[in-house]
Amino acid sequence: MPPRPTVWAGPPHAALLRTQPLPAPPSAPPPSGGPARVAFLFLVRAGVPLDFLWDAFFRNGEEGKFSVYVHSAPGFQLDRTTTGSSYFYGRQLARSVKVAWGEPTMVEAERMLFAAALEDPANQRFVLLSDSCVPLYNFSYIYTYLMASTKSFVDSFVDKTEKRYNPSMSPVILKDKWRKGSQWVALTRRHAEVVSGDKLVLQVFRRHCKMVVTKALLGQKPNYRRLGFGLRRKQISKGSTRMEHDCIPDEHYVQTLFSINGHENELERRTLTYTSWNQSSDPKDKMTWHPMTFEYESASPEQINSIKGIDHVNYQMEHRTEWCQCNTTSVPCFLFARKFSYSAAMHLLEAGTVGPLKSALLA
Q1: What's the protein's topology in the membrane (predicted)?
Q2: pTM of the entire structure?
Q3: Is residue 330 part of a domain?
C-alpha cells in the first residue's frame, strides 16, 4: 500500500486556538496598485461541474481580490452554453493540452495555469484546484488565510518505500532530492514563477517519469493507482532491453523542483486540500488506494466540521508531525476538499458553508 499522510483532529483545546483571528494580510500592495488577488486555477476535463457552488463562493467574495483561470480540453469554451456562472465566462486558457492521467501532460497543464495567472501582477497567491474540489469556508476566511502566510503550501515528503525514482534522472535529479506529495498546491507568486520558469527538471520528467505498464502485461484492464507504485516493466527499444520505472509526474514534480532549488524551508509542507482515501479491509482494494467521492449523505455538516477540526498531519515515513499554523497561530489544516459529487456540493450550498445562498444558478 502506498503511504499517505494521516490526518488527525486535535485535542479539545485546539478548537479554542482556532478561534483566534488570523494574522492580517501583508499591507504592501502588489505592483498593480490594487488589492492583492488570489488566483483560483481550475484543472478540469471540460466544464466546471460544481460551478454553482463556486458561483456562490465568488458572489460572497470581494470583487478585485480574486481571479479565475481554467485549463480544459483543447477547443472547449466556457460561455453561457457550458456554464451558468459568469465568473467562468471566457476564463479557459487560450492554449491547452490534452491531459492524460499519469503522464507529463498533467504537469504541463498545471504550468500553463501558473503562467497565465502570472501575467497579472495583482495575482499574489495561486491555488490549484480540480473539477471536484470545493471550498470549506467563505471567501473572506480563505483569502485572509492565504494572504497571511508568506509561505507556499506544498505537501512534500520522502517516501522510502516507493520505487518511482529512476537513476536515469541523475544528475539533474539526485535521489536524495526526490520528493512526493499531493498535486493540489497553493503557491506564492515567487514560487509560481519557479514552476512556470522551469525547463530543465520538466524535461527530465518528460523522459523518465510516466506510466509504462500496459494492459498486455497484466492481461486485464490495469488499475492505474495500483500500477503507479513500484511496478516496472522491460521495454524493448531498437532490440535492446531496459528497465523503466512507473511514475506519476503530478505527485512528484513541484515537490522535487522545490527540493532541488533549495526552497523547502520556504514551504508549509502540507496541502490545503483534504482527500479521504479508501479504508477498505479488502487487501486488494487497499492496493488501489483511491480517493473516495463524497455524496450528499457523507457531506453532512457534521462530516464537514470534522474535516475543519483537523489540526495536524502525521507523515509516518519521515516520523514527522506537521502542526497547522500560520505565523505561530494555530489554524485548521484544510481550506478545500475533494472529491465532491454534484449532490455533495449542493449539500454544502444548502448548509451555507461558503456563505449566504447567492448562487445565480439557483436564483
Answers
A1: Single-pass type II membrane protein
A2: 0.84
A3: yes
